Amino acid sequence: MFAHSTDGLRAVFRRNQGVRVRSTIVATIIVALAMLAGAAIMLFMLDRHQDSQMYKSTGTRSYEIAHQINEGGMNSIDSELLRPTTGIDVIQIVDNNGVVLFSSPGGDTAAISDITPGWWNTERVDGVELPGRSGTYCGQITGAQFDGVDYNVITAVSTQPYFSGLRGTATILAIEFPIVIVIAGAGIYYFVGRALGPVEKITRQVSAITSSDLSRRVPVPSTDDELTTLAVTMNDMLDRLEQSRTSQLQFVGDASHELRSPLTTLVGILDLADDTDSPIDVDTVRSILLPEAQRMSNMVADLLLLARADERGIPLTVDDVDLDDIVGAEVTRLRSLGLAKVVADVTPIRVIGDPDKLSRAIRNLTDNAAHHASSTITLEMEQDADESVAIIRVIDDGPGVPGDVRDKIFDRFYRHDADRGHHQAGSGLGLPIAAEIARAHGGTITVSDGPDGGACFTMTISTGLEDAQSAIPSLVDPSLIDQAVTRTSNGANRVGSERNIDSLT
Can you state which reaction this protein catalyses (predicted)? Predict the structure, then answer.
């Protein structure tokens, strides 16, 4: 129950206190603990130092007196050594019977009579009370001997001044401690507030940004620290959101525009048939209604495919694929259309991938080439040096793609204003879909100038033979990849002549 109540208090504390207050409290507690530790260490060191000084002064004097007794007896003692000075309050010389042979003023009675260290030995005494004196004393007793007589040299100092100084220091620290803590807490609160000031400005600015106006940006502090990085990162995020929203609005607008054309045709013919109360003839269905409906169906399918690609990537059904078979079939289809001369230079290549998606990507590229070619379409296929990448080039001899729009042609619904062909324009989704399919297979599509003018679209596909699982996106079932790799390995030794590639050229 106590643990639950503690957790509840912590939750309330976190909920009701801001970062500034919490930071101030935590920092102040740390400062207080550090000061307590420092004060304790300082008092301990001061006590040790004073204790060492007391025993050092008394020990040195008792040793010097004992040395002179050993050399020449009582009469050889320097009178200066028998005078109390700073650090020495009591000096006595006592024989073994406890008789005081010499004593500093006020110490006629033997100070300590029950300790006899013996000749040239030293004993330390601490916290003893001396007859006729108040308080406690500490000091040292050193044994001496001359002419067979034993002597004990006693030097002692009162501990009261030392303890009084220690208590005074502790009292001063106790008074100063809360004052310093309050000042430190106030300073921490002020400077944390100053440090969090840019965060408050960023918060207010972000709160004022709405989905209808993403053009505003948060202020960037000039401190060149983590807050500056936060502001720059947030502005970059807002840039991406604005671009995403702009792209989304443009996408919706373009999709609506593209769908409106076939819908207008369908609705117009149906309205005419309804108004005239006449049936629609078969030729109209075949030549107008069915193509327009098919066009709209294909466009909706393309939009759904791109939407899935945006969400989690294009789903693939992988298998071992003879890529040259796909290209060869496409060459045959293009030649049957008779739109342009088709030249093919195809190398047998087997890859791991989705045959349907790869066929669609290559068809989209060849349809684009057929739309813009003047007389000739060229298809080339080869592998790179380490055979890890298949390279497919689709080349036309049309006007080519201007350099400033080569990145834009892969945007959805984008069509260059100066349309490069003489056939009916497409929906503007073919190249984006082909690019997404290539990306799903670990490759890319780029466009450059053709060798004899026109455009050259280059698609790279990872063969998947070396590292299939890294080349294909993670949404593919790994077991399908393993099966495809096994089938590919078993059939990798086929002879190129069996592919009948010569018939394509």
Answer: ATP + protein L-histidine = ADP + protein N-phospho-L-histidine
